[in-house]
């Protein structure tokens, strides 16, 4: 169906703020990126990441980054119905075999099917007439907590055949566990929020290196000790989603120390990563290996986290790096809406082939646009301080009567 666009209508509060903010991606580019994402996302983690990206982009009132999103309304307004997100949830639940606890059967990865879980929980909360969503979400939680392999320390494995920890897991499973707890409420809900935090802490104990970056894979039959850009993005973005879920839950005051730790752990990843940013704005696939190739996927994801952390902490010192990365991503999207110069998400250490694209890279562009939109809105309202960064965007804007380029980010919705 035809897309419907509605302007976010940012009211820039001062000429200083106007000169600092750039336009973000154009509506046409975002629509192309979105269309391509939906066309090629098929693996469990790709669908889960797509669902989250679409929620943040099109339905921000339902995203955990919105202070009033927990709990969501039991009945969604027709103008805010999250139809594309709920379709991912519905298709997943309908395809799940009855004897599978995990949302996707025989996936091989423990965490990846759980990445769709937030969308399934949203479907359950907003459709009381269909109990299949709640049953499916409960089964996925049961699998994570009671069936999946664990390390001796209690960390839930990312793999189903052995106890092995991947940085990717942090984006896949803890946000689902936390969201489940926030919606469930009561002592059990609080316990699940604590579990989400503890799993992150256990993973960090194993994967974090002294410089603040995370290794990609540890334990099990093989390891990847490199500081993979996308892996660090998965970890930082996953921690951020858990943090926002906790602070917007009714029991936020019980988790002040945990929230402080999460914010610190996220900040150490992004502050270290940007130290290795190339002159053109990119991060390398292995962040601190100068012989590695440039990767737009990890760059986009870490830039999105940087914008959101600026809103959370009110520290905008890393915004110049994010702005530089944003321009790099703008220049890396071709005329058909494909993000180029990505890592192959299944090999981790080779670029995507010339005739292929990265589904997660497409999603990361949408996450980046959403994060920048919310950052720009926060700056314009005065809630977030103005960065010393100069404007780096390249999209078109409109000149106001003072000759200042007034730019607006767009909220894209699809009906």
UniProtKB/TrEMBL annotation:
The record, for InterPro entries, names: 6-hairpin_glycosidase_sf, 6hp_glycosidase-like_sf, Glyco_hydro_88
**What are its GO biological-process terms?**
carbohydrate metabolic process
Superkingdom of origin = Eukaryota
Give the span(s) annotated as Disordered. Answer: 381-405
Look up and give the organism this protein is from. Answer: Lentinula raphanica
Record key words, sorted: Glycosidase, Hydrolase, Signal
Q: Where is the signal peptide?
A: 1-17
Work out whether the entry's keyword set contains Transmembrane: no
Q: What does the record list as coiled-coil region(s)?
A: none
Q: Which GO terms describe its molecular function?
A: hydrolase activity, acting on glycosyl bonds
Q: What is this protein called?
A: Six-hairpin glycosidase
């Amino acid at each position: 169906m035809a897309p419907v666009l509605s302007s976010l209508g940012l009211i820039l509060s001062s000429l200083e703020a106007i000169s600092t903010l750039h336009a973000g991606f154009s509506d046409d580019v975002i629509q192309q990126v979105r269309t391509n994402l939906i066309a090629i996302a098929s693996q469990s983690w790709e669908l889960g990441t797509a669902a989250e990206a679409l929620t943040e982009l099109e339905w921000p009132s339902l995203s955990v980054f919105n202070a009033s999103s927990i709990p969501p309304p039991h009945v969604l307004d027709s103008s805010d119905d999250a139809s594309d997100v709920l379709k991912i949830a519905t298709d997943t639940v309908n395809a799940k075999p009855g004897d599978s606890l995990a949302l996707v059967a025989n996936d091989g990865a423990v965490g990846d099917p759980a990445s769709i879980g937030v969308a399934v929980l949203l479907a359950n909360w907003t459709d009381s007439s269909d109990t299949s969503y709640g049953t499916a979400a409960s089964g996925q939680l049961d699998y994570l907590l009671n069936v999946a392999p664990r390390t001796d320390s209690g960390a839930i494995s990312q793999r189903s055949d052995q106890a092995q920890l991947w940085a990717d897991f942090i984006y896949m499973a803890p946000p689902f566990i936390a969201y489940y707890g926030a919606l469930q409420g009561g002592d059990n809900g609080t316990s699940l929020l604590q579990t989400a935090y503890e799993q992150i802490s256990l993973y960090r104990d194993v994967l974090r290196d002294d410089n603040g970056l995370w290794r990609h894979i540890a334990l099990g039959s093989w390891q990847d000790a490199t500081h993979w850009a996308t892996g660090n993005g998965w970890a930082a973005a996953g921690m951020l989603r858990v943090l926002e879920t906790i602070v917007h839950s009714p029991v936020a005051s019980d988790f002040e120390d945990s929230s402080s730790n999460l914010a610190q752990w996220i900040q150490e990843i992004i502050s270290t990563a940007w130290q290795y940013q190339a002159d053109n704005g990119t991060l390398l696939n292995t962040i601190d290996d100068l012989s590695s190739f440039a990767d737009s996927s990890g760059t986009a994801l870490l830039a999105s986290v940087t914008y959101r952390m600026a809103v959370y902490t009110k520290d905008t010192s890393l915004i110049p790096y994010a702005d530089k990365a944003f321009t790099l991503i703008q220049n890396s999207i071709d005329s058909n809406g494909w993000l180029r110069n990505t890592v192959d998400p299944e090999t981790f250490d080779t670029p995507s082939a010339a005739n292929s694209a990265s589904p997660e890279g497409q999603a990361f562009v949408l996450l980046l646009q959403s994060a920048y939109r919310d950052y720009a809105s926060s700056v314009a309202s005065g809630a977030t301080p103005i960065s010393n960064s100069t404007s780096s965007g390249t999209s078109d804007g409109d000149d106001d009567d003072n000759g200042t380029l007034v730019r607006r980010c767009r909220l894209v919705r699809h009906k």
